[in-house]
Amino acid sequence: MSRVLIIAEHDGENLSPATAKTLTGALGLGVSDIDIAVFAADPSGVAEQAAKLEGVTRVLTVQHDDFEHFLAARLAPEIKALAGDYSHVLMPSTTYGKDVLPRAAALIGVNQVSDIQEVIDERTFKRPIYASNAIVTVKVDEGQPVVATIRTASFAAAGEGGSAEIESRDAQAEDPGHTRWIKVEGGEGEGPDLATAPVVVSGGRAMGSSEGFDIIYSLAKKLNAAVGASRAAVDAGYVPNELQVGQTGKIIAPDLYFAIGISGAIQHLTGIKDAGTIVAINKDPEAPIFEVADLGLVGDLFELVPELEKKV
Amino acid sequence: MKILVTLKRVVDYNVRVRVKSDGSGVETDGVKMSINPFDEIALEEALRIKERGEAEEVIVVSIGGDEVQQQLRTGLAMGADRAIQVSADGDVQPLTAARTFLKLVEKEEPGIVFLGKQAIDDDANQTGQMLAALWDRPQATFASKVELADGKATVAREVDAGLETIEVDLPAVLTSDLRLNEPRFVKLPEIMKAKRKPLETLSLEDLDVERAGGITAQAYEPPPQRGGGKMVESVDELVSELKSKGLL
Ligand SMILES: Cc1cc2nc3c(=O)[nH]c(=O)nc-3n(C[C@H](O)[C@H](O)[C@H](O)COP(=O)(O)OP(=O)(O)OC[C@H]3O[C@@H](n4cnc5c(N)ncnc54)[C@H](O)[C@@H]3O)c2cc1C
Ligand SMILES: Cc1cc2nc3c(=O)[nH]c(=O)nc-3n(C[C@H](O)[C@H](O)[C@H](O)COP(=O)(O)OP(=O)(O)OC[C@H]3O[C@@H](n4cnc5c(N)ncnc54)[C@H](O)[C@@H]3O)c2cc1C
Asked: What DSSP assignment string belongs to A106-120?
């Protein structure tokens, strides 16, 4: 019988929306038994949030002080130990899922399906390749578990209203002792989270400097939007790396996306192809961003953006 | 210490890849092929480590048909000491690649295996993590800064929340992110010199690698096209369009 295990993503206090989106992907499998595992130093709060999600059968908590921070080498054997009871093991394709799940897949002895964007049936999925220039339909052989990451931008978050049972399980593995967590820097940015914000304002190389980015932050604040950036803007040091949108940054699906002074390289477009409405502001009428933008405006961003801020 | 760097031959990142009209794959005939950009960054980092005197030898390895020798020669021209081609036909999925690299690790006993965080063709982002699992050694993925001291690597990793720093004991598997460094350009004399550097060819069978498949591609299709966009003439028009769509 098919049973699905989702490994929850959280920060110790809050369940990440990426988990609720992974659950929506899992619901598409048409499998009635869906469990969520919460590995944490103190799982109780996160487990309660997971139990409220509509469609969850059971929440499994695994408590250990080692799970204060997530290290792939520590977690992968734990996931393998739980996986034996399941036909499917899923994580979101966030940097956390991307780091941890392939390690578990190798221990289980299977290839992983990365970045599922559409579920056809229990074993058949669509996923993007070549920076989303192509979509491949893949099928996982019968008789082996499906280990997969879910492309969160392709699925809405599952709703609340459930009341799953919460059960605790013992940790099975030990700290291999060769990997130590030191620190994480970032996230000091104010405003909504880039990964889930309904409105995102992104700036590119054309902003010219971190000060140049001020007009992006200012417009974003007015619109209650998150700020994003192209790789060129991050490489130049105008904004921190966690703001990068694209093939190697965040893949997002806001209702409204502003690409300001961004040329529209394929690697950037990969990150926004599921956006509702794309607005582009660029001084070059030939910029490729206009081929995908729903609304395009040609002109100097340093004049147009402050004007836009005044008028919205 | 030896550093093993994996180089995958992929369609150049500047090429706009097209799906074949019969949906059987993507068009790769006559298309420019290059080293996966992340792997080039991994190699650059390995070379810098060696140039600082923290490693003695940099070995580049690629799995594939004889055409991958081109990318290995480019790696040698960048400064790698020697190259290994593991010849294999057809589909080499990440677990097969990881098992192959493990065999080479057992042979060469490197202090670091450096891979790209993802190959820009299949975008799987798995192979390094899988190798670390099979080898039972640490992994530091998505590296944007690497420092070595006392048999350990301190690695800053690009994660969704920002920059995470972890410390791993060597030997370890590292995978490169884009901001780790900017790879050097290869100079002509180096290309000539690279022709004389050793390039060994082994096969999956020589290394006794058990292939791992399990995932079959059924069809390829182009992504849905966005389009039907509209150009507006002024900020006022933009604002009224957004209002009419209910977005403001
Ligand atoms: C393996 C790989 C992965 C990559 N991953 C990513 C990724 O995840 N995300 C990403 O974004 N990129 C990624 N890139 C980089 C990508 O190819 C582009 O180089 C990058 O997106 C360009 O950023 P940009 O549009 O800001 O800069 P540019 O291409 O330089 O564009 C700047 C634009 O600003 C316009 N402009 C200039 N001045 C003004 C002005 N005053 N007013 C209005 N417009 C102005 C110009 O007309 C131009 O169109 C990747 C590349 C590789 C090789
Ligand atoms: C069903 C299916 C069928 C396929 N059929 C074919 C086919 O017929 N022919 C074909 O060529 N491909 C085929 N592929 C693609 C091939 O299997 C992928 O390249 C493979 O899945 C590895 O994914 P990746 O390179 O994206 O791995 P990633 O995990 O993204 O790679 C990470 C890093 O691992 C290293 N690496 C991975 N592979 C190699 C390698 N071969 N040599 C050196 N370094 C490497 C590189 O450093 C790379 O940066 C197929 C894939 C699938 C899923």
From this structure: HHHT---EEEE-EEE
